[in-house]
Amino acid sequence: MARRRRRQADGQAEKLPPLPELGAVVEVGVDRSEAPVASRIEAKDGWTLTIVAPTRGAGRPIRVAADEEVTIGWGDQEGWWRAVTTLSGTGTDVVELWHLAAQRVERWQRRNAFRLDVAVPVRLRVEGRSVETTTLDVSETGLRCQVPFRDAPGVGTALHVDLTLPDELAVPANLPASVARSERREQGVELGLAFAIEDPKVREILRRFVFETQLHRRAGEE
Fold it and tell me: Given CB 3.0 to 4.6 Å as the disulfide criterion, which of 17, 61, 161, 214 pairs with 175?
């Protein structure tokens, strides 16, 4: 570990791995026989991450031994990542904290895996009318939904989307999108919509929604 942190011969600091951002919600794995749990990044210092000590349910923080292996999972604009870390220390700042020394970081899944099978309310605004339905899946790049035959816009049609997410992850109304795919089903037309979102903050909210929902599902909270 010490070798990793040394400066390179040319005097330049070694490039840090793509560790999660401050405040990011992460998946924490301690015991492989148990479901992963959620935590949050409180601080970063080189290869060391500080997280809120995770709990199971409303219980006390999980206990791990010094140098015990802890895996951290998170998502960003490039895909899903996993860091193998060891517990290097603990602390307290209102809540108990873990200091984790990253040993290696690997990409778990590429960005195109960021797709969540979920039904949330969505309103499509197209050509002066609106169509209300629910999503079949959502990602930071688009969504799938089904609409009645009479309400189905054609491929290439520009429209706007009102997507209803939890309050803490709310996105603006009228998200720009277009119809990338249209397929007839027995009960209507399935649409694949591609977002045309330029604001990185909005893309980050969608990415967090997908990641956090999957994390909670794996932890058995839904």
Answer: 161
